[in-house]
Amino acid sequence: MPSPRSSRDRRGGGGRPEFLSLVSQRGPGAPDSPARRREAGGPAAAALPEEDCMKLNPSFVGIALSSLLAIDLWASKRLGVCAAEGSAWGSARPLMKVIEVSGHGVPWLLGTCYGLCQSHSSAAREVLLNLLFALLLDLVLVAVVKGLVKRQRPTHNKMDMFVTISVDKYSFPSGHATRAALVSRFILRHLVLAVPLRVLVVLWALIVSISRVMLGRHNMTDVLFGLLLGYALYSVVEYCWLSPLNAPALFALWSR
Ligand SMILES: CC(C)=CCC/C(C)=C/CC/C(C)=C/COP(=O)(O)O
């Protein structure tokens, strides 16, 4: 019966560490396997071929990513201080839930539609119509990414959120963070506000984002990616900006 030692030697160990992933990908019997090369010749033949070195990179990237995700899970759990009534900051949970509603899709959609119905100036109508377009685009994009990535919400999350749709059982990216970044960038660009109010808008976006982790709804990477996505999405909205010139039928509809 072969001893563990002899089977390690057969894989070409000989006291030197071996990258099993490479060996097992090619198989010990493959004609160009490192083991065969060592059997065939001197030190030059024992060196790893260039294509094998290239194949090492994905595993290093994989290890780096897994470590990052592990840190993300660990830190997000520690920061989930309002995840339940009994958590360290459980008494702040009701306030966090108010902040959650302030970044929810329903109030923003209803508020924008209400504003559109009430607006009498064409400039206000144009801005609000584009805000509505931005909010809908954001909902669709977040739903698509959540459906593709299918990352589960943190285990410490209590699923007691105000109005959700089916993909909201997934957590990547945070829809609240995406909306917060998108809406705040939109407001800063299209509303004339005094500096303190502009600061307040940015603070609101940050507080909504941080509260997602504190409530235990998300891991930090969900929120960070959400913020980036929302920020980038605003550029798309600006690029596709709807106006009476490029969408006359739409504006005619709202001016009736
Ligand atoms: C018109 C239409 C389909 C409205 C749906 C509005 C709605 C229910 C949006 C969901 C908002 C929500 C709960 C997002 C989840 O946010 P996370 O930060 O937890 O990802």
UniProtKB/TrEMBL annotation:
SMART domains per UniProt: acidPPc (SM00014)
Bilayer topology annotation: Multi-pass membrane protein
Compositionally biased tracts (Basic and acidic residues): 1-12
Subcellular location: Endoplasmic reticulum membrane; Nucleus inner membrane
An annotated Gene Ontology molecular function: sphingosine-1-phosphate phosphatase activity
EC number of the protein: 3.6.1.68
Superkingdom of the organism of origin: Eukaryota
Keyword Transmembrane helix (UniProt): yes
Top-level EC class as recorded in UniProt: hydrolase
Ranges of residues in domain Phosphatidic acid phosphatase type 2/haloperoxidase: 127-238
Disordered: region residues: 1-44
Assigned keywords, A-Z: Endoplasmic reticulum, Hydrolase, Lipid metabolism, Membrane, Nucleus, Transmembrane, Transmembrane helix
GO biological process terms on file: lipid metabolic process
TM region(s), chain numbering: 127-149, 191-211, 231-254
Record's GO cellular component terms: endoplasmic reticulum membrane; nuclear inner membrane
Reactions it catalyzes: (2E,6E,10E)-geranylgeranyl diphosphate + H2O = (2E,6E,10E)-geranylgeranyl phosphate + phosphate + H(+); 1,2-dihexadecanoyl-sn-glycero-3-phosphate + H2O = 1,2-dihexadecanoyl-sn-glycerol + phosphate; (2E,6E)-farnesyl diphosphate + H2O = (2E,6E)-farnesyl phosphate + phosphate + H(+); presqualene diphosphate + H2O = presqualene phosphate + phosphate + H(+)
Record-linked Pfam families: PAP2
Family: Belongs to the PA-phosphatase related phosphoesterase family.
This protein's name: Polyisoprenoid diphosphate/phosphate phosphohydrolase PLPP6
Origin species: Falco tinnunculus
